[in-house]
Amino acid sequence: MIRALLAIVLLAAMGLVAPAKAQDLQTILQTHAEEVANPGRRSVGVVIDDLIASGLPQVAEFLQNWQSRDVVQDEATGLFYYAKPLRDVDTGETVDLPDASLSEIRPNGGVRKVIGGALVQFQLSDPDPTRRIDALDAIARAPDPDQIEPLEASVNGEPDAAILERKQALVAMLKARFAGTTEDRVAAIQSLSGTLSLDARATLNQILTTQAGVAAMLPDDVNVARILSPGNDISEVEAYGRLVDAGLAPARISNAAIKEALAANIDGGAVAGIPVHDLNTLDRRFEAYTRLADQGLVAPTTTDEAAAASLADHVFYEAYTEDDAAVTVAAEAVLASIERNVALNQTADLALDAMSLASIYFLAAIGLAITFGVMGVINMAHGEFIMMGAYTGYVMQQLIPDYTLSLIVALPVAFAVTFGAGVAMERLVIRWLYHRPLETLLATFGISIALQQLAKNIFGTQARPLTSPGWLDGALVINEVVSISYIRIAIFVLALIFLGLILFILNKTRLGLEVRAVTQNPGMAASMGINPDRINMLTFGLGSGIAGIAGVAIGLYAKVTSEMGADYIVQSFMTVVVGGVGNVWGTLAGASMIGTLQKGIEFLNPSNTLAAQTYMILFIILFIQFRPKGIVALKGRAAEA
């Protein structure tokens, strides 16, 4: 041995022994050439282990092609190549073998499954996050116990926090179903208690899958989920059907079927020895049928009393398909905990939706609340001012391609346009109709129709896009249950800004002081040098301008059409009336109440939005009967109107 080693060293020193060459993929494949060409499910693992141990980057591609049957072998040389086109397995370069005789490598389904499991290990550690996510999706679609080990191996080196969390959850779900010991399965199930994942709930529901059973006595070898009581938990008809299906009782047939069977077996004026003229009662017919059944001529049946006795003599139950009771107990407890958390988060999500809808209604109604409260004018054209603001935003986007800048410009421009339109409407129409509510309602309704037609003539009947800036795309995702779009958040913030701005104007400015004075006592305000006519004009213009800004915000969320104002006029009036006419805080309270009520009804009846609207209106009518002045009643002229 020593002499051999000395000889090798001497030859190496003389340059006669070449240094060891790094192993390539083809060399490994040639080592297992027979197994690669004709793989078997039980023996292919040796090849895969050697491929993985090599650490070669081209192994993943080979496994993919091998699994998809895109590998061929040159029968003359025994070398393997990728097919379509013919490529070298190491370099990936196209090769030209015109005279070669190539045989396709076609692994069967079992081998392909083993290869797929090995391939998942590579994909789970792929540098591309998208491929890692695809691998996790594949595991979630077809969970298998063989995936636990490669998935666990990929957890430690995962750099992405979101993917790491999903890997850990997926490991827990796989172990919950496939781990080797009860302790490991229970521990994995308990680790899912804090999640809201739909996949986790599906895993626990799979563990808690039940199947119906019936027996004379409750079996000792089944994991019973619950005992069923015929007539309470299960109908007696269904319970007896289970007895029949299990071969524990004869099937029951109708009286008509008994008559047909007897008629078919009349022999010499009698049936089973009973004369036909004696078959005039149900008991005698049943007796004859029973004799036929004993002779094997008809299917056996039973009486009501016998059926009731059979039901009483058997136990009906539902048993878990999972035999381990400790696992099902843990799964039941964790699933109940998850469902409670889901219910709480659904409530939070519903509250966010209600707040978002309330902010939209507040923006739509605040201008109407000001004009209605100060002037007592029922403005049916208020929705058209919202529509005008939305179309103003659309025009600004056509002039200014930058959506963020166009939105910033659209807000003051929409206010100016609708403020001017409101002042013109007040000067030309409203001022002549004060204290004449019916005429005011009809006049403003006519103006709303005219404005809708004008919008159709200018912009057409199709909806126009009011595109939100890129930073408003998407949603804020808090967890798998609670999320809210950034547009809704922006509208909510805008509603808060308007609330603060209007409170500042009404409480901290001379205009606000004069508005409040005219609201409370117009005669006294006039005697103090305040011009109520001017205040009415400015107030109506202010309310119309706010509606225009609301239109820009609503246009980002809803469709912009000539009829969009009609979608909000009813809710706006309901908001004002429920909250308290002419009061900012009342409008906020009314919007919150209506938004919450509408979302709550839609949650309870999601398939019928029209019914939800009807229920909401009925509730508001009842509410007004008990509190006609609204949630926050206003004192002064508005209260007297």
Structure write-up:
The protein is α+β, with helices and mostly antiparallel strands and 641 residues long. The chain has three domains: 25-179; 211-320, no CATH class; 346-640, Orthogonal Bundle (ABC transporter involved in vitamin B12 uptake, BtuC). Helices cover 63% and strands 6% of the residues. The protein has 27 helices and eleven strands. The chain has helices at residues 2-13, 25-31, 33-37, 44-54, 59-67, 109-124, 129-141, 148-155, 161-178, 182-190, 198-207, 236-245, 255-264, 282-294, 304-312, 325-375, 382-399, 403-428, 437-459, 486-508, 510-520, 522-527, 532-557, 566-579, 584-604, 609-626, 637-640; strands at 71-74, 80-82, 87-88, 102-105, 210-215, 224-228, 270-271, 274-275, 315-320, 475-477, 483-485. The strands form four sheets. It has a four-stranded antiparallel beta sheet with strand order 3-2-1-4. A three-stranded antiparallel beta sheet has the order 5-9-6, with helices on one face. A two-stranded antiparallel ribbon has the order 7-8. Strand 1 and strand 2 form a beta hairpin. The radius of gyration is 40 Å and the shape is flat. Mean pLDDT is 83; it is low at 1-22.
